[in-house]
Amino acid sequence: MESVLKSPFPASTKRATSVIDGISTESTVVYFADKIMITISQDGRLAQWFHVPLDTNNSALIGTQSAEDENGLLPLTHLTPTTLLGGAVQSRESLGQLIAVQLASAVSMRNKDEGRMVVLGLGLRKEELERDGFIQLMELVGKCL
Fold first, then answer.
1. Positions in the chain whose pLDDT score sits under 50
2. Where are the domains of the chain?
């Protein structure tokens, strides 16, 4: 018989809202026992879903990169995002995968022993995001992590 994994109920949830490129944007992070679910929504939509496994076997790679390094803001190279739903438009899929791997990197860098999968639900109004908008988006989710 399998053992039951005790986890806190309800799952820990954090929310933040900000205006990014003139659009009200909501971020929610839910910490489940086996996954960290992040949603980023504009106009209440969630059109794409991605996941990024956090491989704790590669935690040695995390220690070699810090925010002070020249490449400190780049995503960790061992993380691979996968599109689950909503990848019909290539430009949206590329942006979504970039956001997913960047957020998974942020989670990994905050806790090098984190092994839960990061699942991202994304619903951006625009297909493209300028540099400032991307940074604001990362800061918004960072408030919830």
1. 1, 62
2. 13-57+77-142
